[in-house]
User: Which sequence fits this backbone?
């Protein structure tokens, strides 16, 4: 099936329904790389990428219901540091094929297993309730932090505030050396101009000129809160590194309380690629709670002895195999570290490319059928949409954590 959409309304319908709600990739030199979708604003897509391109043309892709959507854009603006505003030109739709090499578990001598599965919805729910162990840990860390930095705080809640939501969108920590000197800012951290908008709407006194704010994350993916330090004089990189280590310690100790109900099942891996995985899961209680079609899960993937990565993925299919279930999962915006480890591992067992994902790809369909409400992923209705650019969006992407369909 090949189809092309040039109608502006049809293009916008596809982008609104799929981009920002499914794993998206950007094409560069004939290869596809994960791309961060920040928002859809004024009929333009806002993205964050560190890649360099030879022209203003951009192609972004997503896979949905056995179809691959290739959206062609032109760069209309940006900040020159990775943030780009893209205006759509057309969308091509073809049959989806597997991206990259795949390793069958039988091809290599390794004990690849999946463990510690948890649904991302359950991560947020877990910190929405009072827990004495978690409260005790936070109290101890707050006491320790204020002794070193009197003007500091720890925000931790099941619902994001505006500061955390924007750090989540940009996937960058806040490190403002001097709020009144833009020349002190670097592209490695939260955008300087965007920070000024946050500051203006906050209750922080004007005497404070420096801020460090580092998210507290569940295994590097789900934002739970943040550690914030304010100062009237410039803070330096050494202090930032200390706060970064501190935030990681808070996350580690909270996870160790067991407040997050990870599955104890050990699941055998059947095949693995840079884009996804399939594994066997027994019909246990944790399976029915965590593994749902189109749900987003986190899990540990043990590649071989001493080598493990944490994976975030969307469940694309669940097949009943009499005594067990085979689960197919598409990876979703993995961290650079996990991607690097995974890529090195897969280099040792390359398999055939170009294998069609669906045995029976969809026949010619209308745009409405391809991105129907029934088949489109659902974004959490309880999330408050944020506007990173301080303006009203035509269609907002409130979170990059797709939730399961009800």
Assistant:
């Amino acid at each position: 099936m090949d189809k092309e959409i040039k109608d502006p309304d049809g293009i916008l319908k596809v982008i609104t329904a799929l981009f920002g709600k499914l794993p998206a990739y950007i094409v560069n030199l004939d290869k596809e790389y994960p791309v961060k979708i920040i928002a859809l604003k004024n009929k333009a897509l806002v993205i964050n990428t560190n890649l360099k391109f030879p022209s203003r043309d951009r192609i972004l892709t997503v896979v949905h219901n056995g179809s691959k959507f290739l959206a062609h854009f032109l760069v209309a603006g940006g900040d020159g540091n990775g943030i780009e505003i893209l205006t759509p030109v057309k969308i091509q739709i073809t049959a989806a094929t597997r991206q990259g090499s795949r390793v069958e578990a039988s091809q290599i001598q390794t004990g690849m297993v999946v463990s510690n599965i948890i649904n991302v919805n359950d991560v947020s729910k877990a910190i929405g309730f009072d827990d004495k162990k978690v409260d005790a840990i936070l109290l101890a860390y707050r006491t320790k932090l204020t002794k070193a930095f009197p003007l500091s705080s720890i925000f931790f809640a099941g619902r994001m505030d505006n500061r955390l939501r924007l750090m989540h969108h940009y996937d960058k920590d806040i490190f403002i050396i001097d709020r009144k000197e833009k020349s002190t800012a670097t592209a490695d951290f939260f955008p300087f101009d965007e920070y000024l908008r946050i500051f203006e709407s906050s209750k922080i006194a004007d005497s404070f000129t420096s801020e460090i704010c580092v998210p507290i994350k569940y295994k590097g993916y789900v934002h739970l809160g943040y550690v914030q330090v304010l100062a009237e004089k410039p803070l330096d990189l050494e202090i930032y590194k200390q706060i970064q280590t501190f935030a990681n310690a808070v996350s580690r100790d909270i996870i160790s309380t067991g407040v997050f109900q990870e599955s104890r099942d050990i699941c055998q891996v059947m095949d693995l690629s840079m884009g996804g995985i399939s594994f066997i899961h027994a019909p246990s209680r944790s399976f029915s709670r965590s593994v749902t079609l189109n749900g987003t899960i986190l899990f540990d993937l043990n590649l071989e002895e001493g080598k493990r990565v944490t994976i975030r993925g969307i469940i694309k299919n669940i097949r009943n195999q009499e005594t067990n279930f085979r689960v197919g999962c598409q990876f979703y915006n993995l961290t650079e570290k996990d991607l690097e480890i995974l890529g090195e591992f897969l280099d040792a067992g390359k398999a055939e490319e170009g294998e069609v994902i669906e045995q029976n790809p969809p026949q010619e369909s209308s745009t409405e059928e391809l991105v129907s409400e029934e088949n489109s992923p659902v974004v959490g209705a309880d999330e408050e949409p944020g506007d990173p650019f301080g303006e009203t969006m035509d269609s907002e992407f409130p979170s990059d954590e797709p939730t399961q369909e009800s």
About this structure: The chain has a mean pLDDT of 82. The two ends are 30 Å apart (CA to CA).
